[in-house]
Amino acid sequence: MRRFKTVDDYIINPAWAGWQDTLTQLREILLSTELEETVKWGSPVYTFGGKNIVGLGAFKSFVSLWFFQGTFLKDERKKLINAQEGKTKALRQWRFNAGDEIDADLVKAYVFEAIENQKQGKEIKPAKNQKLVIPLEMQNILNQNKALFGQFNELSISCKREYAEYISEAKREDTKMRRLEKIIPMIMEKAGLNDKYKK
Length: 199
What we know:
alpha+beta, six-stranded antiparallel sheet, 6 strands
């Protein structure tokens, strides 16, 4: 997946052909609030007080707003879904499909509520002591390469977890192998998976 350095680059990406107007409209709504615009993980993210509030994303068949602590939103209009049921605790997604009219006032109401929730400290934090589970394919490569194993062990637990999840999330074996090939030089440099996208 291509990573973008600016929100403008993200919006004009040819892969989102047909979605540029929707992305632009949602961006303008978000910029009309007190949120600050940035790019994280290659996508537009809007923050308040340094905390992630909402992300903007385009997909083949829809555009979405991701509310990072969306589980706390009242959602009286039933706009939000949990895109990864059973896996995602806090994140909630609002999808906009082709032909949907965007109600700017309603979007703002959800955003303002999300900001207020952040001000009140409503937040589900990721489990800090979650056990590190290294996928078998990754463990085999680490076992076969002592230098790689040594560099991996010097990474922080959060970096190790990012790499392990990156491999385990791949469904196909060939995808896992491609990802492993990609991360080996990164681990050798003692770099985190998302270091270059972090502010």
